[in-house]
Amino acid sequence: MPIIDVHIHLSDIDKFHYTAKELAKVDYSAAGLKAEFDKNDVILGIGMGVTEQTKGAFPDASSPNPMRLDLEESVPSFLMECVGINPNRLTGANAQEELDRIEARLRAPEVAGIKIYAGYYHVYVYDKVYTPVYELAAKYNLPVVIHTGDTYSMNGLLKYSHPLTVDELAYQQRGVNFMICHLGDPWVMDAAEVVAKNPNVYADLSGLVVGDRPHFERFMNEQLYMDHFRRALIYSDHYEKMLFGTDWPLAPIGLYAEFIRRLVPEQHHEKVFYENAFGVFPKIKERIAQLK
Fold first, then answer.
1. Three-state DSSP class for 184?
2. Quick check: helix, strand or coil at residue 66?
3. 204 phi, psi to nearest 5 deg
4. What mean pLDDT is predicted for residues 77-88?
5. Could you tell me if residue 207 is left (phi over 0), alpha (psi between -120 and 50 degrees) or otherwise beta?
6. CB within 10 Å: which end of the chain, N or C, has fewer?
7. Sequence-distant contacts of 264-270: CB under 8 A, at least 24 apart
């Protein structure tokens, strides 16, 4: 079965390098990612743009917009990009210049959407600072991907990344599709309700476990942990709105796919691993056709 991984990283972030080497034990490079894709029948990935100007500064308040996949010189042909947004640069005298650069990048054929790092940046997703970004999303028919739940940095503030904040945003911006990342973990029941209630909200299942096989085995064999997510998926009852993502390099792709196969009932695998991505990211159809 072909797979689309809707949530990976390929940016020169110090913590990603550390996690890849010490925890997940993967080759954090475009070549390493392509090898994992080929081994696991992943035909396309969507990378979440993010940058840091100083080593270890993630989330970096000084990063210019749009934030990109900057580990390699260009986006590899087997990937698309969600451009990252730094809200701290969207106010003041240079705000329009930042927005102009974002818009110019959104026109690129390899750009699949926009990424908001809620919690990492201390701004609510429904704050007016993001309004021009959502207007661009509507203009170019692109989804907005939103980090929700725990932050992979102690400098994040969780009140900004709670999935319930997306409910207000989805109400305000009915013309834009939103995908909440990580099923809002640990607030997965809240995320499940936001997805179920709002026709323009979807969720990815990325980043629920970080590490190598021994770490995954410990959690996959813990019934309470697995039921934590199963309960939310069953409650939401919208498998057509759940998407497969890994958060690579936080975990090996094959291992993460095995984890999701255990969570999601088999009759929904084709939707979650492949079909649902087309409904959220309109531009991937053309990209896949080019790859073929």
1. helix
2. coil
3. -105, 160
4. 98
5. left
6. C
7. 264/205, 264/233, 264/239, 265/239, 268/239, 268/242, 269/1, 270/1
